[in-house]
Design a protein that fits this description.
Chain B: GO terms for molecular function: lyase activity. Chain B: Keywords: Lyase. The complex is a heterodimer of chains A (84) and B (156). Chain A is mostly helical and 84 residues long. Chain A has helices at residues 3-16, 41-55, 61-66, 70-81. Chain A has one domain: ACP-like (Non-ribosomal Peptide Synthetase Peptidyl Carrier Protein, Chain A). Chain A is 56% helix and 0% strand. Chain B is globular and about 50 Å long. Chain B contains three helices and six strands; from the N terminus they run H-H-E-E-H-E-E-E-E. Chain B has helices at 2-11, 13-17, 64-86; strands at residues 30-34, 38-44, 96-106, 115-126, 129-137, 143-154. Chain B has a single domain, classed as Thiol Ester Dehydrase, Chain A, CATH 3.10.129. Chain B is an alpha+beta fold and 156 residues long. The chains are: A mainly alpha (84), B alpha+beta (156). Chain A binds chain B through residues 40-46, 48-49, 61, 64, and chain B through 98, 100-101, 124, 126-129, 150-152.
Chain lengths: 84, 156
């Protein structure tokens, strides 16, 4: 899976949990989940659980704490997949 | 038999004492069973509860939101306290909880003075989010409502 494919896969997951006033076009590499995409902490957990299923990885509490932006999420996914 | 009931009631009292609710918004009387995957508890809707005066006018029926609340207090919060306790995350009076979603189906009405039993099964408890499948039964063991409830529980 290329970096772009991983990004698109993540975008598709995030899209499901966006509030109505945020469009999928708002998702960029720099987007902050809570402050910019208005995703609440409960939905952020859902995103993490979907990421685990989609990429067949397991995230820990520390990963959750450091997952602030889309880039953070991709770095964590890369590290778990052994791509970093 | 009576003696046995008293023992089982006291067994989980420490969890009920940690609940951040009090009357008239405490909807847990006793817990029958609890382990890391499920919880079962009871509540009797006393006819003196204030909402019966307005729901409905001259025809008291327990509101669906109150049934949902009862399911959440027994099924989610009691189980959550038990799970946090197990993880040694329990700190006195620092529990922060919030309902994050609920999807309920209501099948039968619950009238004043009815006793209900809530059974809840954990779907997951991860990153402080607890999601459960809940079912409420009346004294005739008929399903009153069922659904899925999630909430955030933290102790920091």
């Amino acid at each position: 899976m290329t970096k772009e494919e991983r990004y698109q896969k993540l975008r598709a997951i995030i899209q499901v949990y966006l509030p109505e006033d945020v469009s999928v076009d708002n998702i960029t590499m720099e987007s902050h989940f809570i402050n910019e995409l208005n995703i609440n902490s409960a939905n952020l957990v859902d995103i993490v659980l979907d990421v685990e299923d989609a990429f067949d990885i397991m995230l820990e509490n520390d990963d959750m704490d450091s997952m602030q932006t889309v880039t953070d999420a991709l770095s964590i996914i890369d590290a778990k997949l052994g791509n970093s | 038999m009576k003696h046995k009931e008293v023992i089982s009631k006291n067994k989980y009292d420490h969890i009920i004492q940690k609940l951040p609710y009090e009357r008239p918004f405490l909807f847990v009387d006793e817990l029958l069973n609890i382990n890391e995957n499920r919880v079962e508890g009871c509540f009797t809707f006393s006819d003196t509860l204030s909402f019966y005066k307005g729901h409905f006018k001259g025809n008291p029926v327990t509101p669906g939101v109150i049934l949902t609340e009862c399911c959440a207090q027994i099924g989610l919060v009691c189980l959550g306290i038990f799970l946090l306790d197990q993880e040694m995350q329990w700190k006195e009076s620092s529990l922060k909880i919030g309902l994050s979603s609920s999807e309920m189906e209501f099948l039968l009405p619950v009238f004043p003075n009815e006793k209900v039993r809530v059974c809840s099964e954990k779907v997951y408890f991860r990153f402080n989010k607890l999601k459960c499948k809940v079912k409420m039964y009346n004294e005739a063991d008929k399903l009153v409502c069922k659904g899925s409830i999630s909430g955030m529980l933290t102790n920091t």
